[in-house]
């Protein structure tokens, strides 16, 4: 069998010229030529080329060849395709699994990320308000995950060439400036602080600085004054937060207390008087913030429920249900439980001599045997047990005997002061802060003196 030559339009036209007149041959030739084109266009090879994806060719330097057209008929390259991006905000009750599901990423991808290292375990401790940015390829595989903690901190998990995840922490440094606020108390510290432009957190921080010297539920009087110097942080010209209090003063019932922040050689920060004595006593004055005393220490009090004379061996602080209750000092929880009279309670032993008791709690955040630190939240205010309304009943015992919580703390020693060997470093760091605070206070002091003189005249 020999190879048969494939007809072409030229051969067909030549054959027609031999058997037909010229005019007939021309007409028949044109028809044959159109028929041949139709036959050629319907061959499989031409059909494949007609439907293949267009190929973008780029110039290649040197003697390298551009890819052959046949290679372009392969499927699209997902590695070069743009990644799909999903940005989600963590809501109350969200789990990491919920977020991955909303982003359209499989649980298998989530477990692969979580098992990539210790850093990835922090993804199980997401907080409401944080934002997650998923970047996913065309096959649905996670290529990177960004956790936006806040405007300054971003944690990135990105897949490397080998398929493993790497962890990168991106931190932006805000611009910091010194700010100063002062105020006079007319009704409450919170109202005066708000009027002066202090945030709730700064008001609480200032109260904590002076909490060993001033009982903010009992000692505050109209006309008390405060001044505070702190840092303000800005990012791209917009305020993003406050730094710590640098120096502050508080005048309570005519007595002025001064405090300055000092960071020691180990990087630990605390507040001290200008001469280096610690502002922190072994116990804080009140275990709750900004409350009113509904019942004082009174050994002959008339009980509000039983209407009989029964000793009131503590102080009752009226506060809304759920208000945090703090440990008054460092110690160990010796009892935490529930009884019909006390409701939910926590007892803390502080060394050999002291014990504090916290009764009628709504919730307990401490367990028996647990070590706690001063101002650690051990529960919340409630009305459990024999209680007529939400309040904290607080007791202070010395060698097993009840003492008045409102007065005993003043008689106890403070924490350690700055050692003499460190006083040079302490003065070099704190004296400029105290001088700056004084320079801010001088105009206001001069104005008050002038107003007093005018009132006298």
Automatic annotation (TrEMBL):
Pfam family, one: Csd3_N2
Domain Csd3-like second N-terminal: 182-299
Compartment(s): Cell envelope
InterPro entries xref list: Cell_wall_metabolism_enzyme, Csd3_N2, Dup_hybrid_motif, LysM_Opacity-associatedA, M23ase_b-sheet_dom
Domain M23ase beta-sheet core per the UniProt entry, residue ranges: 311-405
Keyword S-adenosyl-L-methionine: no
This protein's record includes keyword Metal-binding: yes
Cofactor(s) listed: Zn(2+)
Domain called Opacity-associated protein A LysM-like: residue spans: 86-166
Highest taxon in the source lineage: Bacteria
Protein name in the entry: Peptidoglycan DD-metalloendopeptidase family protein
Organism the protein comes from: Microbulbifer halophilus
């Amino acid at each position: 069998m020999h190879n048969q030559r494939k007809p072409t339009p030229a051969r067909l036209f030549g054959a027609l010229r031999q058997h037909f007149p010229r005019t007939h041959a021309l007409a028949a030739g044109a028809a044959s030529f159109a028929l041949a084109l139709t036959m050629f266009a319907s061959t499989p090879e031409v059909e494949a080329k007609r439907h293949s994806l267009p190929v973008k060719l780029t110039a290649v330097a040197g003697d390298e060849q551009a890819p052959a057209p046949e290679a372009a008929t392969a499927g699209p390259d997902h590695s070069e395709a743009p990644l799909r991006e999903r940005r989600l905000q963590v809501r109350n009750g969200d789990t990491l699994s919920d977020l991955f599901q909303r982003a359209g990423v499989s649980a298998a991808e989530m477990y692969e990320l979580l098992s990539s290292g210790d850093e990835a375990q922090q993804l199980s401790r997401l907080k409401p308000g944080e934002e997650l940015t998923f970047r996913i390829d065309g096959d649905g595989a996670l290529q990177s995950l960004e956790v936006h903690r806040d405007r300054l901190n971003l944690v990135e998990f990105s897949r490397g060439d080998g398929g493993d995840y790497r962890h990168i922490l991106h931190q932006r440094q805000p611009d910091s400036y010194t700010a100063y606020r002062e105020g006079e108390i007319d009704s409450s510290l919170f109202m005066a602080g708000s009027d002066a432009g202090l945030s709730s957190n700064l008001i609480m921080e200032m109260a904590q600085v002076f909490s060993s010297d001033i009982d903010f539920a009992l000692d505050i009087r109209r006309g008390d004054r405060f001044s505070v110097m702190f840092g303000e942080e800005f990012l791209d010209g917009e305020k993003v937060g406050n730094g710590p209090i640098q120096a502050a003063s508080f005048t309570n019932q005519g007595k002025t207390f001064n405090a300055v922040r000092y960071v020691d050689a180990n990087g630990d920060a605390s507040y001290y008087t200008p001469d280096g004595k610690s502002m922190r006593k072994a116990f804080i004055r009140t275990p709750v913030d900004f409350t009113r005393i509904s019942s004082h220490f009174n050994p002959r009090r008339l009980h509000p429920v039983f209407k009989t004379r029964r000793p009131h061996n503590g102080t009752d602080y009226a506060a809304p249900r759920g208000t945090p209750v703090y440990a008054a000092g460092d110690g160990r929880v010796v009892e935490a439980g529930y009884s019909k009279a006390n409701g939910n309670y926590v007892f803390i032993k502080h060394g050999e001599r002291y014990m504090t008791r916290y009764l009628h709690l709504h919730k307990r955040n401490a367990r028996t045997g647990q070590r706690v630190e001063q101002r650690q939240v051990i529960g919340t205010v409630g009305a459990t047990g024999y209680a007529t309304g939400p309040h904290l009943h607080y007791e202070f015992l010395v060698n097993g005997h009840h003492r008045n919580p409102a007065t005993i703390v003043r008689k106890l020693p403070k924490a350690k002061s700055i050692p003499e060997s460190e006083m040079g470093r302490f003065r070099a760091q704190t004296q400029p802060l105290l001088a700056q605070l004084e320079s801010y206070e001088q105009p206001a002091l001069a104005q008050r003196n002038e107003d007093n003189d005018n009132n006298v005249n």
